[in-house]
Design brief:
Helix content is 34%, strand content 13%. The protein has 436 residues and is α/β, with parallel strands linked by helices. The protein has two domains: 158 residues, no CATH class; 228 residues, Alpha-Beta Barrel (TIM Barrel), CATH 3.20.20.370. Strand 1, helix 1 and strand 2 form a beta-alpha-beta unit. Helix 13 runs parallel beside helix 14. It is elongated. The chain starts with a strand and ends with a helix.
Length: 436
């Protein structure tokens, strides 16, 4: 498919590459040559304000659509007025063969344009989801860009009935964050004794008894869900990805077993058959050297090069954090979601390359967006097990309907025997059986 524009910018090239690959399986060809466009015999999109040929698919270019987004180099507040198209939200209204500027609107959402503008941060210093257009306009629960693309495909096929559309298969990718590998095991003698004494002083007999039983080998550690997960992955032929926190010292938000301990190393190595990535510690968030050290440490333990990551607490700032990941050799990041609410942060359920808006260029960092995290459902949204299962089902239906990639995050402590999370293991088991 050929697309004509009066000028080809990095932003236009980026978004037409993404949309072209999602629709056709290959990027659109771009041209500024009117004669080439006139003489082209295949399907073609005219992204300008002038009619060029009778058989073109017309999307009027800015300023008629209300935004110069793809032809600017700066970052500024964009005039956005949402309206409904075929039952879903859209913006950057225009005329022609499609009711809105799908290129500019998709770029706005994928680039996370709004996160570069002045905004309120949450208690952890993260971009607060309440700032987002998706939250304000009520489409955070939808992979809206994928929905737009389905409508775009349908409209293109009406214009060009012989057009061959690329159909991606629905994919389910389960992922896990290992923040605290064990509840009682491998904590060290002094820490263990201190915890037992604290429980006894507070007359909390049950935790003290449970801890002693686990340490004596009479009971499984409450956070030890690893063999159960291995069995389920084998049963349903799943290929999960695990992210391990391997900070050299613990702090307020980093509380895992230290990577210098052999049991932690054995645990990590036992997952080598799956994808293993880094879960950068809170401490490394503002320390690029610490980040590199943690990646090297995990690579040394696994014997493999570590090229994937997900931020602890989903704590990242654009563009600084993703630049640090790239500089540390990370090629795939799984942090594109919120740590405060479930939903589609970038309004998409397909992997996409990160666009560095400040540098105005596409990078080679591939982002894998997630839409569900157990901790969001439990701690932030205060959902019951039944509500969480229904939420998972809704995300499954939404992503499957657009043949997207469904990525979920679970933590081992939710899937063990800890009484605080009773019933959540069964929620996950039920969901997996329905998906597979």
């Amino acid at each position: 498919m050929l697309l004509y524009s009066h000028i080809i910018t990095p932003r236009l090239k980026y978004i037409t590459d993404f949309i072209g690959k999602e629709i056709l399986g290959e990027a659109f060809q771009l041209t500024t040559n009117i004669e080439q466009f006139k003489n082209f015999s295949g399907p073609k999109i005219n992204y300008s304000n002038e009619t060029i040929s009778a058989d073109e698919f017309k999307i009027f270019q800015p300023p008629l659509s209300g935004s110069q987004l793809l032809f600017e180099k700066n970052i500024s507040n964009q005039p956005i007025d949402c309206f409904e198209v075929s039952g879903f939200k859209a913006f950057f209204k225009t005329e022609g063969d499609f009711p809105f500027d799908i290129f500019a609107a998709s770029f706005y959402l994928l680039s996370r344009y709004e996160e570069y503008l002045p905004h309120k941060k949450d208690e952890y210093g993260r971009y607060a989801h309440e700032n987002s257009l998706a939250f304000k306009e009520g489409f955070l629960h939808l992979p809206l860009v994928n929905i737009w693309l389905e409508e775009f495909k349908r409209t293109l096929r009406i214009k060009y009935p012989s057009l061959t559309i690329h159909h991606s298969p629905f994919t389910f990718l389960p992922t896990y964050d290992i923040d605290i590998a064990f509840s009682y095991l491998h904590k060290g003698r002094m820490k263990t004794l201190g915890a037992i004494l604290k429980s006894l002083i507070r007359f909390r007999w049950s935790p003290a008894k449970e801890r002693i039983k686990v340490l004596k080998g009479l009971q499984q550690d409450p956070y030890d869900a690893y063999e159960w997960l291995h069995g389920m992955h084998w049963q349903y032929n799943l290929k999960p990805h695990y992210f391990f926190l391997v900070a050299n010292k613990n702090g307020k938000y980093d509380k895992n077993i230290l990577p210098s301990k052999r049991p932690m190393q054995y645990l990590i190595q036992s997952h080598n058959q799956y994808g293993v990535g880094i879960h950068p510690s809170w401490q490394s968030g503002n320390d690029p050297e610490k980040l590199k050290h943690e990646i090297l440490k995990l690579g040394h333990i696994t014997g493999k090069q570590i090229t994937s990551s997900r931020q602890h607490y989903i704590r990242f700032t654009l563009p600084q954090t993703l630049r640090q990941l790239i500089n540390a050799g990370i090629e795939k990041d799984f942090s594109m979601g919120y740590g405060s609410i479930n939903g589609f942060r970038a309004s998409v359920a397909s992997p996409f390359y990160w666009y560095d808006l400040e540098k105005d260029e596409q990078t080679n960092l591939l982002l894998y967006p997630f839409c569900f995290m157990d901790a969001n459902s439990f701690f932030e949204q205060k959902f019951s097990e039944e509500q969480a299962l229904e939420e998972l089902r809704n995300y499954y239906k939404a992503v499957k309907s657009v043949n997207g990639t469904l990525i979920t995050i679970w933590h081992n402590n939710f899937l063990g025997t800890d009484k605080l999370f009773a019933g959540w293991k069964e929620v996950y088991r039920q969901f997996i059986s329905e998906v597979k």
